[in-house]
Every structure is written in C-alpha cells, then in structure tokens.
Amino acid sequence: MARLTLIHHFCRNPDHQKPARDPMDDPSANPVTLNGKEWAFCPAGAKRDHQWDRIDGLTLDELRERLRTAHRI
Length: 73
Ligand SMILES: [Zn+2]
Fold this sequence. Notes:
Structural class: alpha+beta
Largest sheet: 4 strands, mixed
Distance between the termini: 21 Å
Shape: globular
Bound molecules: zinc ion
Order of helices and strands: EEEEH
C-alpha cells in the first residue's frame, strides 16, 4: 500500500487489541486489511470477527504513533 494511504476503520473487538505475541506464530498476520473499499486496521491482524469503528483518516504511521503514545485511537 502507498505510504500515505489513509486508514478509515479501526477494530474495537476486545480480543483483537493486542498484536500476536510472536509474529512467528502467524507470519501471515497483517494489521492492515480492507473493509469494503477502504483500508482498516486490526491490532491483532486477525482474519475475522472484527468490530469496525469508523475513524478520521490516519496514515499507518500516524495510527502506529498514536497507539504507541496514547494507546488508543
Ligand atoms: Zn479485528
């Protein structure tokens, strides 16, 4: 995806708020996915059972920075 692509959905499923403990456990896990035609972010990189919440468009860098500093979106 392009670096400035905006992410418009964030997964609020309580079971999806932590990244996979070890990426080696599931190398296919990817936090960025498509929700319809728009980009979405699930911290766990889960494949299903998302609870998408619409957010203001954030780039992946902005979103990661916000998670790192504020631990919330
Ligand atoms: Zn999810």
